[in-house]
Amino acid sequence: MAKEKPHINIVFVGHVDHGKSTSVGRLAYDSGNVSEQQMRKLKEKAQELGKSGFEFAFVMDNLKEERERGVTIDLAHRKFVSQKFEYTIIDAPGHKDFIKNMITGASQADVGVLVVAASDSVMAQTKEHVFLCKTLGVGQMAVLVNKMDAVNFDEAKYNKVKEDVSALLKQVGYKLDEVSFIAASALQGDNIAKRSDKMAWYKGPTLLEQLDLFKEPEKPTGLPLRLPIQDVYNIAGIGVVPVGRVETGTMKVGQKIIVVPARDGKGAIGEVKSIEMHHEQITEAIPGDNIGFNVRGIGKKDIARGDVLGSIENPPTLVSEFTAQLVVLNHPTVMTVGYTPVFHVHTSQVACQITEIVKKMNPATGEEITENKDILRNGDAAIVKIKPSKPLVIEKQSEIPHMSRFAIRDAGCTVAAGMCIDLVKKAA
Description:
Blueprint: E1 7-13, H1 20-30, H2 36-48, H3 55-60, H4 64-69, E2 76-81, E3 86-91, H5 99-106, E4 111-117, H6 124-135, E5 140-146, H7 155-172, E6 180-183, H8 207-213, E7 227-235, E8 239-245, E9 251-252, E10 256-260, E11 268-277, E12 280-282, E13 284-285, E14 290-296, E15 308-311, E16 318-328, E17 342-345, E18 348-361, E19 368-369, E20 381-388, E21 392-393, E22 405-410, E23 413-425
Parallel strand pairs: 1-3, 1-4, 4-5, 5-6
Antiparallel strand pairs: 2-3, 7-8, 7-15, 8-14, 9-13, 10-11, 10-15, 11-12, 11-14, 16-20, 16-21, 16-23, 17-18, 17-22, 18-19, 18-20, 22-23
């Protein structure tokens, strides 16, 4: 068996209509990941719908409704193989109402590509997406300065966009020497997978080359074991089989583990009998592995989705309250103390109450805002204290960042997202 290429999740973000889907579609087509025949069909479909030029976007936008409206609604996942890595591309919507999917996308991504149209430069959502990427832990960024064809491939226009975006990235804390800028036209195919002959002044990588320049994210094997349970099955002849993805640490056959909070709130203790991935038995699982496993000493009724497995020496942290940094994205009115929405943390969904607004901040600069500090509206960032209605596992960003993030949902949409920065452990 050939050694698998390292896997990276990549998210494409940016303002609506700046060309995210088209960039991804063009990349897939020009690199041979989509066939001529598929492309021809999409082109015909685009013309038929009066959306000529949208054929590359259709590669990702495969929902019928999206084709008719010409916007990306849900997250599309697609495998893409470069020379060095196997990528899962998460094409995140730029549209306001679809920001909830943008969060689920960004919170899984290792690297991001910010798409900015040369003709528009930085727009409202460009700012919001950059801030979100930073808050949600997207460590590496590249900037695709798209639609260069719309500005006649003018170097001065490119430099202006580069300057604007650099200021924005610096503001939220990205290191500019680690960010590459790519001058491109996704629609025409300039500098996506093939080098352009229209911008002799541009010396940087194409988008395809950039994919091999990202650094492989380190697998957090040195951190304590954390595996949020996604489901628990009872399989005849085997017994109880929980499934989930290892977030941090390593899990080995024979290891003594604890699952918390479990049904009794104290934790269920057992020993790992076997681990299976892609229908094959393995002896140890590492971060990113989606596994099913069998545990001696734990029954089907003891554990459920939302519980977290860890080693007996370093059990997952159960909190009675925690402090978080969050950003309000899409709330119909305002958030105040006493507000009790559902928090989505790893695989658990728990109603939590905001008990105090410690500090309100300008999301773009992080500066403190003192007026109306007890009311949080869309676009506000804040540090708040939160009390879960039942035992919840969450970790500090500074200790186990992969287990610190959450989204807040209410009435069917994501209203805020953030991460835990401090916590109070639940008394035993």
